[in-house]
Protein: HupE/UreJ family protein
Organism: Croceitalea rosinachiae
Amino acid sequence: MHPFEFYLKLGFEHIADMTAYDHILFLVALCAVYRIEEWKKILILVTAFTIGHSITLVLVSLDLFSIPSSIIKFLIPLTIFATAIHNVLGSDQAVKSVKMKRNYVMALFFGMIHGMDFSNYFKALIMDPSDIVVPLLGFNVGIELGQLLIVFFIVGIAFIFLHLLKVKHREWNLFISGAAAGMSLVSMVESIS
């Protein structure tokens, strides 16, 4: 198998792994506040997350950055919790453009935190930091494809509830964001016990 294909598959499997649901839960929380008509915004946010993820992979692979695993295990659910709370508290239409810019920064930064979880394994796989370009590109394309598939599924479910079953968007956002916040709180407690 070509190295690019190997890392592409690895990236896709990493993001779509149901046993490591933290990435999927983050994407659910990230999408909860958006309607299907805002698909461009969702794609930009997902890409910002991928960029943040790749920044961390580069920094760790080049031995420029490292955080203990125990802290990362707490920070990842914290990003989900913060996103969910931001969805609920920051839903005022008057500040929508400011909120969108803030969401981009949050997705980028939170992508960096999520990237920390996989970075040491990625570093061990590449072994030679000077040969990082193909693995990094393949891995991130795989992550992006996996995220887009997951987001397509999430937005499809949202479409059914919002457009076909006529659930109000505010209630949808509160329910999804509340569920994500609750699940992330459980993960935070588990990470410190």
